[in-house]
Design a protein that fits this description.
350 residues, mainly alpha
Length: 350
């Protein structure tokens, strides 16, 4: 697992350089900030492209999935699993079955969207800590292993932020792409509607229309949809048992309770992040008897979880920046250590 820790060390150093930039007039030059951050995303994407075939436990599953995808001229709904992802597969999977380019592209999109959210006007004050938590807890789990879920989470996160900003076209577009990347992201639709600053009647009409549309699709494609969802409902997917006594769950609960007590002092954007994270916690508990759904739904708010963690350390206790970053680094390292257990070992070769 040495290679993974070299990567983590790289992340820490790079985030440290970005933190220094924020306190330096030269470092705040826009072109320098832009290039530094996107180069970081490119390097991590290259790591996934180079090593996912060896290290990812799900790699062969994606090879098989894309191998079974029919040509566009022979489209069959029962074989179309998350059409946006499969469209990417048609464009970027190599003819020999290699997914090097595809895994690079999906990681670049996923991390790029998440980084854009974290570095935007709402959450830029916790960017470095939030990125540390995001890489520590979710990079090996999502970008490196669960490609579809990773990309779906990125788009549904963008949809939630678009709801805050009243950017309706981007909201609808990202919501549709999220659903076509990983169907589980639909579970966050109530959250998107809650955050939308529109009258309650419009929200209700939209929700009813969505339910009706999916009901019609369910009747038309009932066999295909059952084929698609059966492994999740029957528990055929082998995953780690979800439990409320894990370090992550306990830490997350503590953070959210603390921030709820500080609700009045939070900015509107932090209240949005807190509502999203609380909703994710609710989904985890609501589906606790189904490990697959509980884990998947709970991870949909991953970006907002990391925002809450970062705010908790940096502002809830009014710690000096050096102490907040040190504590965040230790916690992120513990989470990263836990995530290394779900990947195969890889080695650097020169």
């Amino acid at each position: 697992m040495v290679t993974y820790w070299i990567l983590f060390f790289f992340v820490v150093i790079w985030m440290g350089l970005i933190a220094i930039q924020e306190n330096d007039e030269f470092g705040r030059i826009e072109i320098l900030r832009f290039s530094t951050r996107w180069l970081f995303v490119i390097v991590l994407s290259l790591f996934v492209g180079m090593f996912s075939d060896i290290g990812s436990l799900d790699y062969e599953n994606y090879v098989d999935l894309l191998k079974d995808t029919p040509p566009v001229t022979e489209w069959k709904s029962e074989f179309l699993k998350d059409p946006f992802f499969q469209a990417l597969g048609m464009m970027f999977a190599n003819s020999d079955g290699s997914l090097t380019v595809l895994t690079f592209v999906t990681t670049f999109l996923s991390l790029g969207i998440k980084m854009s959210v974290l570095s935007g006007k709402y959450y830029k004050n916790v960017f470095v800590l939030a990125m540390l938590f995001l890489i520590g807890r979710f990079f090996l789990l999502h970008e490196f292993t669960q490609l579809r879920a990773s990309l779906g989470i990125a788009f549904i996160t963008l949809s939630v932020v678009s709801a805050m900003e009243k950017r309706w076209f981007l909201l609808i577009f990202s919501l549709i792409i999220a659903a076509f990347t990983h169907l589980s992201t639909i579970a966050l639709l109530p959250l998107v509607l809650l955050i939308c600053q529109i009258i309650a009647k419009v929200k209700l009409v939209f929700l009813l229309f969505t339910v009706l549309a999916f009901s019609i699709l369910g009747v038309i494609f009932k066999d295909e949809i059952f084929f698609r969802l059966a492994p999740y409902l029957t528990g055929d997917y082998l995953v780690t048992e979800n439990t409320v006594v894990s370090f992550y769950f306990i830490f997350k609960t503590l953070v959210l309770l603390t921030l709820l007590f500080q609700w009045k002092s939070l900015s509107p954007s932090m209240r949005c992040a807190l509502m999203a994270s609380v909703y994710g916690l609710f989904l985890t508990l609501a589906f606790l008897q189904n490990n697959v759904l509980s884990l998947r739904f709970g991870e949909l708010t991953a970006v907002f979880d990391c925002i809450c963690f970062a705010y908790f350390l940096k502002y809830s206790f009014k710690l000096e920046s050096s102490y907040a970053y040190s504590a965040g680094l230790v916690i992120a390292a513990l989470l990263y250590f836990s995530s290394t257990k779900i990947v195969n070992s890889v080695s650097l070769t020169f």
